[in-house]
Design a protein that fits this description.
Layout lengths: L3 H6 L25 E6 L5 H9 L15 E4 L12 H11 L4 H6 L1 H8 L14 H13 L5 E5 L7 H16 L3 E5 L3 H7 L2 E6 L2 E6 L1 H13 L18 E10 L8 E2 L3 E10 L3 E2 L1 E8 L5 E6 L9 E2 L4 E9 L5 E12 L3 E16 L30
Parallel strand pairs: 1-4, 1-5, 2-3, 3-4, 8-16
Antiparallel strand pairs: 5-6, 7-9, 9-14, 10-13, 11-12, 11-15, 15-16
Helix pairs in contact: 3-6, 5-6
């Protein structure tokens, strides 16, 4: 029993308690001028650790030392009064973040300009949209001359152009040597900004080091959980002349790891049993991402349009090999056995009964990440031509 009401309703019931440790055995050092990432799954203790650093929570045991003025980007806009206009809120919020009243008033123009809210500065905050309020709060926070910034999932706010301004600010602060601690689920941001990172799981540190190494550990930890139920309830389609018995993916050495790396050579295999005689059947595999977008299609017909004649009861393994250019994530397989006749005749089709996970810490943002070579050449100075008239 945990409440007075429970005790009153059930006076004879035994009371008990359960201890939950949000953080345990945490020991880390963030050096001056370092951009340090904290990553982990939901409930791993990331935000709790950041709030301990900010002084919002007090640790039961242990010590936390922070040298310099600190500015937390944890919950933007906390302390804003919706019945006051922008100027009053900017001054009050700036004072709460450590500025003197004179400093807060002096920086008001810069705050409003950065937030792009000049037209709305006389409005009360209750008439602001949520995006406008977050932009104002972010603009106040970056005006504080902090030595240490604590950032919780707030690397970009607002629309695309304002988001880029936020990224530019963090790039500038990093280059100026400001110490920044970032909590995020975005492994692209970890690789883009961080010098080092730490991985939390169940409140404990399970990985620490280079950003790419920690990002890969995070992805492996995230995708090693049990796969979701893949069956959509739809029946198999096709005329029944063949049956797909098994589908699997394997690396070039024949192993079947839990995840496959970008750039790795892969082989997708399907074991097929022929219920009727079939001539020149082929395998087609579609890789469909979590948004039901087909990212890649591979077919045996590219090299073997004529695969031969297969008798009733015969089994065969069809496979396609390719270099893994898929973006990180889980992909569901749509596997089809078909043959050409007067049209494309589908013998059997298995949809989303099997999935594969692609691991990679540098996502470009597309459905595939093609290997590229980037070249930048400085153009030679062009001589001016004199024209006489």
């Amino acid at each position: 029993m945990h409440t007075l009401k429970e005790r009153a309703l059930h006076p004879l019931r035994r009371s008990g308690h359960h201890t939950f440790r949000a953080l345990e055995n945490i020991s880390l050092e963030v050096k001056k001028g370092e951009f340090f990432g904290i990553v982990g799954r939901n409930g791993s203790g990331k935000s709790t650790l950041l709030k301990c650093l900010a002084g919002i929570y007090s640790p039961d045991t242990g010590k936390i030392w922070i040298r310099g003025r600190m500015s937390p980007f944890i919950e933007l806009g906390v302390g804003f009064n919706p019945d006051l206009a922008a100027r009053d809120n900017v001054v009050l919020n700036g004072i709460m973040l450590g500025l003197s009243p004179r400093e807060a008033r002096a920086r008001y123009a810069h705050v409003i300009e950065f937030a792009e809210l000049e037209e709305f500065q006389e409005l009360k905050l209750k008439n602001y949209s949520s995006g406008m309020q977050v932009r104002l709060a972010f603009s106040v926070a970056i005006q504080v001359d902090a030595d240490v910034l604590l950032v919780d999932e707030v690397l970009a706010v607002g629309d695309a152009s304002f988001s880029q301004k936020c990224f530019d600010v963090f790039n500038r602060l990093r280059d100026e040597g400001t110490t920044i601690v970032l909590v995020t689920h975005d492994m692209g941001a970890v690789n883009r900004f961080c010098h080092r990172a730490v991985l939390l799981e169940h409140g404990e540190i399970v990985g620490q080091g280079e950003p790419e190494q920690v990002a890969n550990q995070y992805l492996e930890l995230n995708f090693n959980r049990d796969a979701p139920e893949l069956s959509t309830g739809a029946e198999r389609t096709g005329n029944g002349a063949a049956r797909i018995i098994d589908v699997w993916c394997e690396a070039a050495d024949g192993s079947q790891p839990a995840m496959y790396l970008q750039g790795q050579e892969l082989r997708l295999c399907a074991r097929v049993e022929f219920v009727e005689e079939a001539v020149d059947p082929g395998l087609t595999v579609e890789f469909e991402n979590a948004h039901r977008v087909v990212a890649l299609i591979a077919s045996t017909a590219v090299e073997h349009e004529r695969s031969g004649r297969f008798a009733i009861g015969e089994e065969a393994v069809f496979s396609v090999e390719f270099t893994n250019v898929l973006a990180p994530g889980r992909y569901f397989l749509i596997v089809t056995i078909s043959r050409l006749g007067r049209g494309l005749e589908i013998l059997d089709r298995s949809a989303r009964e099997t999935s594969v996970v692609v691991q990679g810490s540098v996502a470009q943002g597309g459905v595939v990440d093609l290997p590229i070579r980037a070249v930048i050449e400085r153009a030679p100075a062009l001589g001016r031509r004199r024209v006489q008239v």
